[in-house]
Design goal:
The structure holds three protein chains of three kinds.
Chain A (H helix, E strand, L loop, with lengths): L1 H28 L15 E9 L16 E10 L5 E4 L11 E4 L4 H34 L3
Helix pairs in contact in A: 1-2
Chain B lengths: L4 H24 L9 E2 L2 H6 L10 E2 L14 H38 L1
Antiparallel strand pairs in B: 1-2
Helix pairs in contact in B: 1-3
Chain C lengths: L23 H33 L5 H34 L3
Helix pairs in contact in C: 1-2
Classes of the chains: A alpha+beta, B mainly alpha, C mainly alpha.
Chain lengths: 144, 112, 98
């Protein structure tokens, strides 16, 4: 079952990268959002990845590293706790008494690079699934 | 009757499968903070021709560690992923041929 | 000049086929047969166990279960062919005018 459980390892990688990409896209879309339903400007979101052993059916028979491999999951989604960026724009509808507007602390260039990284990571996981599927097919072909 | 070539090839497939598992884990954890790349000492594992023995993952040295403690290089993993798949392809094809040959040899005796 | 045909001298004919009571040669063949059957059975069990373990997810790779199956199949096919050969040879011998 070991190669089969690799499929769930790679699937977990795909899911995690997709979540990360979604958050990064949300950051980019809200880079200038000064008003949110919760009050205050948009806060940058990030995903925290942690390793998680894949769950092969017979895990009890094998060591943790032996059988299924190590997948990944998003442990939590954290919001940027830092103080928002203040810009002096007195005419802005969200300006405070001193004329400063709170903007999200987002560096679009950085998040853009991260987004490409997430896409690349996603594709690498897809490549892993393809490679393993091929190996499984070849094993089956040994019967012919 | 398939042995010993088939035994070697099967062990080769065993080690390749185990290695591919590690490659996939590395790729899935390419952005996990603190995760360190794992691999097998392929030659050592292959030479210990004990069928069914579990290979031992080892941490890979010489990789650049990033700020979050992760040292996975997607380039390296993607390259090895492709390499392993091709080798698996080769070994399984050789095994298929071996099986077919033995089967023909058995059947050839029939008419004789 | 043709040499005269000598009369058949019973003393000079060596027994080729052992009497049925003799244990050793018949035992050899029986042993070989049992070993062959045992071998084929062992391979079949190994293959079945391998497939079951794989399906239950207890471990082992697909290619291992597949190869065990192929080994068992080949051993069985070889055994079948050998059995056919033995039967053939037996039938030929039985057909021989004595």
């Amino acid at each position: 079952m070991s190669l089969f459980s690799v499929l769930s390892v790679s699937a977990s990688g795909m899911a995690a990268q997709r979540t990360r990409a979604t958050l990064l896209a949300e950051n980019l879309a809200n880079a200038e959002t000064t008003r949110t339903p919760e009050g205050g400007p948009y806060r940058r979101k990030d995903a925290v990845f942690i390793s998680e052993p894949a769950a092969p059916f017979g895990e009890v028979f094998q060591s943790a590293l032996g059988a299924g491999g190590t997948g990944v999951r998003v442990a939590e989604i954290i919001e940027d706790p830092r103080e928002p960026e203040k810009r002096y724009q007195p005419g802005h509808p969200d300006a405070d008494a001193d004329g400063y507007v709170a903007f999200p602390r987002i560096n679009p260039a950085e998040d853009m690079v991260d987004l490409m990284g997430a896409a690349r990571g996603y594709q690498a996981n897809v490549a892993a699934i393809t490679a393993v599927k091929d190996m499984i097919h070849r094993s089956i072909e040994l019967l012919r | 009757m398939l042995d010993p070539v088939a035994n070697s090839l099967e062990r080769y497939l065993d080690v390749l499968s185990a290695r591919q598992r590690l490659m996939a884990s590395n790729i899935a954890n390419a952005d996990t903070p603190g995760y360190k790349t794992q691999d097998l000492d392929f030659q050592a594992e292959f030479r210990s021709l004990v069928r069914g023995a579990s290979p031992h993952p080892v941490e890979v040295t010489g990789l650049q560690v990033r700020n979050d403690g992760n040292n996975v290089s997607l380039d390296r993993e993607a390259r090895l992923l492709a390499e392993n798949a091709l080798r698996f392809n080769l070994a399984s094809s050789l095994l298929r041929t071996e099986i077919r040959t033995v089967r023909s040899a058995i059947k050839e005796g029939r008419s004789g | 000049m043709t040499s005269p045909i000598l009369p058949i001298d019973p003393g000079r004919i060596q027994p080729v086929i052992q009497a049925p009571g003799q244990a050793r040669p018949a035992g050899d063949f029986q042993q070989a047969l049992n070993d062959a059957i045992g071998g084929v059975e062992r391979l079949r069990h190994t293959a079945n166990r391998g497939v079951e373990a794989f399906l239950a997810g207890e471990g082992g790779e697909l290619h291992q279960a597949v190869l065990a199956t192929q080994r068992a199949e080949l051993a069985f096919e070889l055994f079948l062919e050998m059995r056919n050969k033995v039967v053939q040879a037996y039938q030929e011998i039985m057909r021989m005018p004595v």
